[in-house]
Specification:
39% of the residues lie in helices and 21% in strands. By secondary structure, the chain is α/β, with parallel strands linked by helices. InterPro entries: AAA+_ATPase (IPR003593), ABC_osmolyte_uptake_ATP-bind (IPR051921), ABC_transporter-like_ATP-bd (IPR003439), ABC_transporter-like_CS (IPR017871), Gly-betaine_transp_ATP-bd (IPR005892), P-loop_NTPase (IPR027417).
C-alpha cells in the first residue's frame, strides 16, 4: 500500500469554490476564473508516494506546490478530492483528529527554521515530543539522539542565535526526526541557505534517508536539488502536475515543451547514472581486461573520468560484481556533450 495518496485534489480560493471546481472539470481555464476573482491554486492533483521514498514537487513561484503541501498536513482543506495517509482519509477527519495525526505521524521542516529563540537547541529539537506529552527525560534523550544524527552533538545547550543558518536548519531536521513520524514534509527547507551549506544539507538528508528510509515529500524550485535527491519528481505549472516520474524520465523524456525548457539547464552529469546510458549485452572483449569499471548508480560525471582513461566502452557491474552492461564513449558524449579524449591502451590503465 502507498504511504500517501492524493486523488483529484483541488484547492480554490474565492467565491463559490465548488462551482469553480466544476468549471475546471468541464474545461474552463485558470485565467478565466481569475478574471472573476477566483484563484485555482491546485488543480486535479493525483499522485502516490511509496514508503521510504523521497517525492519531490518542483515548480516556479505560484505553481501551487506549497499550497499542495499545506493540504497534505491539514493546514488547508482541499476544495475537492481526497488525501489518503496509511489508508486513512485525512480529508474526513475532524480538526481535533487532524491535529493528533499532525503531532504524531507527520513532521514538518520549514524554510526559515522556525526555531523558538527562547528555547535552547535541545528544547527546540524536543518540541514536537513536548506537544505529544512525552516525559522530559525521554524527550531530552530522543532529542539529543536526533541532534547527534544531524551532526550537532555538543550544541544542546546553545541558543539558536549562536548557530549558523545551516546549523539552525539541522536543528529543524532533528526536531522532525525526534518524533519518529511516518511522513516528513519539507517546504523549500534548504532554499534560504548558501549554496555550499545547501549541498551539505542535501548530503545530510540523503545519508539519513539511507539509514531511516523515511517517506518524504520535498518542495523545491531548484531543479538540480530536485533531480539530485528525488526518487520521484512531480513538475507543477499553474496549479497542475504536468509530469511525474524519475529524474531520468523527466530529463530524457519531457512531457511537453514547458518541461523541456524547465529542465534544460540541469547538470545531467550529476543527475543521470550509468544505468541510464548503458547498453547490453556487455562488450565481447571484456574477458581478461583489468580496466576500471563502474556500478549502475555511478553518476555520469564520475563515469566520464573512467571513460577518459580506457580505450573502450566502460563496463557496468551489478551488486554481485557481474558485468551487466557497458557505456561507449560516443554514447556518453551524446548524453552530456563532453568531448572525446584520446584512447589509451588497457595495459597503461592496469599499470
Amino acid at each position: 500500500m502507498s504511504t500517501l495518496q492524493t486523488e483529484h485534489v483541488y484547492k480554490v480560493f474565492g467565491r463559490r469554490p465548488d462551482d469553480a471546481v466544476r468549471a475546471l472539470e468541464s474545461g474552463t481555464g485558470r485565467d478565466e476564473l481569475r478574471a472573476d476573482g477566483t484563484t485555482a491554486a491546485v488543480i486535479d492533483a493525483s499522485f502516490d508516494v511509496k514508503p521510504g521514498q523521497i517525492f519531490v514537487v518542483m515548480g516556479l513561484s505560484g505553481s501551487g506546490k506549497s499550497t499542495l503541501l499545506r493540504m497534505l498536513n491539514g493546514l488547508l482543506e482541499p476544495t475537492s478530492g481526497r488525501i489518503l495517509f496509511g489508508g486513512q482519509d485525512l480529508t474526513a477527519l475532524s480538526a481535533r483528529e487532524m491535529r493528533r495525526v499532525r503531532s504524531t505521524k507527520i513532521s514538518m521542516v520549514f524554510q526559515h527554521f522556525a526555531l523558538f529563540p527562547h528555547r535552547n537547541v535541545l528544547e527546540n529539537a524536543g518540541y514536537g515530543l513536548a506537544v505529544q506529552g512525552v516525559p522530559r527525560a525521554e524527550r531530552d534523550r530522543r532529542a539529543a539522539e536526533a541532534l547527534a544524527l544531524c551532526g550537532l552533538e555538543g550544541w544542546e545547550n546553545s541558543w539558536p542565535d549562536e548557530l549558523s543558518g545551516g546549523m539552525q536548519q539541522r536543528v529543524g531536521l532533528a526536531r522532525a526526526l525526534a518524533t519518529d513520524a511516518d511522513l516528513l514534509l519539507m517546504d523549500e527547507s534548504f532554499s534560504a541557505l548558501d549554496p555550499l551549506i545547501r549541498r551539505d544539507m542535501q548530503d545530510q538528508l540523503l545519508e539519513l534517508q539511507k539509514r531511516f528510509k523515511k517517506t518524504i515529500v520535498f518542495i523545491t524550485h531548484d531543479l538540480n536539488e530536485a533531480m539530485r535527491i528525488g526518487d520521484a519528481v512531480a513538475v507543477m505549472r499553474d496549479g497542475r502536475i504536468v509530469q511525474q516520474g524519475t529524474a531520468e524520465d523527466i530529463l530524457t523524456r519531457p512531457a511537453d515543451d514547458y518541461v523541456a525548457a524547465f529542465v534544460q539547464d540541469v547538470d545531467r552529469s550529476r543527475v543521470l547514472t550509468a544505468d541510464a546510458v548503458m547498453t547490453s549485452p556487455a562488450r565481447s572483449d571484456a574477458d581478461g581486461c583489468d580496466c576500471p569499471t563502474v556500478t549502475a548508480d555511478t553518476p555520469l560525471a564520475d563515469l566520464c573520468a573512467v571513460s577518459a582513461r580506457v580505450p573502450h566502452a566502460v563496463d557496468v557491474t551489478g551488486t554481485d560484481g557481474a558485468v551487466v552492461g557497458s557505456v561507449a564513449q560516443d554514447r556518453l558524449v551524446a548524453f552530456i556533450g563532453d568531448e572525446q579524449r584520446a584512447p589509451v591502451r588497457c595495459t597503461e590503465v592496469a599499470a
